[in-house]
């Protein structure tokens, strides 16, 4: 097959491309330039999408002796990932930009362009397993990325290859060293690539401007403090609340909800974070839409805990009833639905969380 290898400049994508070559595919490497000003994105070990990463990807392609190109995707990335990120925070939600990048950039814009150019598939270094259209967790659960891939439609999965799903991260690094790839010891990227200094609050303030409002106690309705922008907070947050006085019982307070219309942040005790029902819209099902309730497992944020649940499909989404309460479930995040399987949990689909509530009495 003619395969396009998306090469980020990291060790995972380099080894994935190498395995595609070993499998006998006709491989071309491509690095995605996601910023009109790459110096504005992170450097070194702090992120991805930098000039350094582009050079590392090119060197890896040279070692593999495959053609290599750089595709300018800055405009698409700004519109579909960065602008979406800002808009979601402005609406009081907490988005996952890596999930959106996979959905809109790597497996929409890139896959569409690759197919138009005659490629059969796009190969990436994601840690997940894919076989006959079935997406499963990676064998390396600590590095599993099936959560951020669960937004992919069946037709997109049909054009994807994830060669590293059966390999641990330490094994990937050892293989890269054996192959003579200079990125073998390159640190993993962290946080959000388009926030150069890692200051999400500062980035949002620059994008949205200051919007002062009240921080309110959930139980008494009392105003406990002020904020410069509700977008700087997320459900479940404990630190950085800037409250003028402690709770009467001395226990810490947590962000319970964000109301953009009133521009208020509501806080309360940790127990008030507990929810047992999650509602979501914009569903994506990997193998056909279910038409009845079913038992499953759900994950409510990247690298978060997994909960047994019963999922009920709805006209525009789903409702998940959790067997045990979860805390800190934020609107805007994805709920990913898995079918338990001894060979590795299978991704059934995903949706975007709109609301999480407590229905059971304590």
Task: Please characterize this protein's 3D structure.
With 362 residues, the chain is α/β, with parallel strands linked by helices. The chain has 3 domains: 2-185, HUPs (Rossmann fold); 210-271, Adenine nucleotide alpha hydrolases-like domains (SH3 type barrels, Roll); 274-357, Beta Barrel (Elongation Factor Tu (Ef-tu), domain 3). Helix content is 25%, strand content 29%. It has 8 helices and 17 strands. It has a 6-stranded antiparallel β-barrel with strand order 12-15-14-13-16-17. α1 (11-22) runs parallel beside α2 and α1 (11-22) crosses α7 (169-178). The longest helix is centred in the N-terminal third of the chain and has 20 residues, at 97-116. The chain is globular.
Main sheet properties: 6 strands, antiparallel, barrel
Strand order in the largest sheet: 12-15-14-13-16-17
- In angstroms, what separates the terminal alpha carbons? 57 Å
Spatial shape: globular
Give the CATH level 1 class of the largest domain: Alpha Beta
Following the backbone from N to C, one meets helices and strands in this order, namely EHEHEHHEEEHHEHHEEEEEEEEEE
In the CATH hierarchy, what is the architecture of the largest domain at level 2? 3-Layer(aba) Sandwich
> What is the CATH T-level topology of the largest domain?
Rossmann fold
Beta fraction of the residues? 25-35%
Number of domains: 3
Helix percentage: 10-25%
Radius of gyration: 22 Å
* H/I helix tally: 8
The CATH homologous superfamily name of the largest domain equals: HUPs
Defining traits:
single chain; 362 residues; alpha/beta; Rossmann fold; Elongation Factor Tu (Ef-tu), domain 3; 3 domains; six-stranded antiparallel barrel; five-stranded parallel beta sheet; 8 helices; 29% strand
């Amino acid at each position: 097959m003619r395969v396009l290898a998306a090469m980020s400049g990291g060790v995972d994508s380099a080894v994935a491309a190498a395995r595609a070559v070993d499998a006998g595919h006709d491989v071309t490497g491509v690095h995605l330039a996601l910023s009109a000003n790459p110096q504005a994105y992170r450097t070194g070990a702090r992120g991805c999408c930098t000039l350094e990463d582009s050079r590392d990807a090119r060197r890896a392609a040279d070692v593999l002796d495959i053609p290599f190109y750089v595709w300018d995707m800055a405009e698409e990335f700004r519109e579909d990932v960065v602008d979406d990120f800002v808009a979601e925070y402005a609406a009081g939600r907490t988005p996952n930009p890596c999930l959106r990048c996979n959905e809109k950039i790597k497996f929409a814009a890139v896959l569409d362009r690759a197919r138009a150019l005659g490629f059969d598939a796009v190969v990436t270094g994601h840690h997940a397993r894919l076989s006959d259209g079935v997406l499963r967790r990676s064998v390396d659960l600590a590095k599993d990325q099936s959560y951020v891939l669960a937004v992919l439609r069946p037709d997109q999965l049909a054009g994807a290859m994830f060669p590293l799903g059966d390999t641990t991260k330490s094994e990937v690094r050892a293989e890269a060293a054996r192959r003579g790839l200079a990125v073998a010891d390159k640190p993993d990227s962290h946080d959000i690539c388009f926030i150069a200094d890692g200051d999400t609050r500062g980035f949002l303030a620059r994008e949205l401007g200051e919007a002062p409002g009240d921080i309110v106690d959930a139980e008494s309705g009392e105003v406990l403090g002020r904020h410069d922008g509700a977008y700087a907070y997320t459900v479940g947050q404990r630190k950085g609340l800037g409250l003028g006085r402690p709770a009467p019982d001395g226990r810490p307070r947590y962000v319970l909800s964000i109301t953009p219309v009133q521009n208020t942040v509501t806080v309360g005790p940790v127990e008030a974070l507990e929810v047992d029902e999650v509602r979501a819209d914009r569903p994506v099902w990997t193998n056909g839409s279910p038409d009845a309730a079913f038992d499953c497992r759900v994950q409510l944020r990247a690298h978060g805990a997994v909960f047994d649940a019963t999922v009920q499909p709805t006209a525009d989404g789903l409702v998940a009833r959790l067997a045990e309460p979860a805390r800190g479930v934020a609107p805007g995040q994805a709920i990913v639905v898995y079918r338990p399987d001894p060979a590795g949990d299978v991704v059934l689909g995903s949706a975007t969380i709109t609301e999480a509530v407590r229905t059971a009495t304590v």
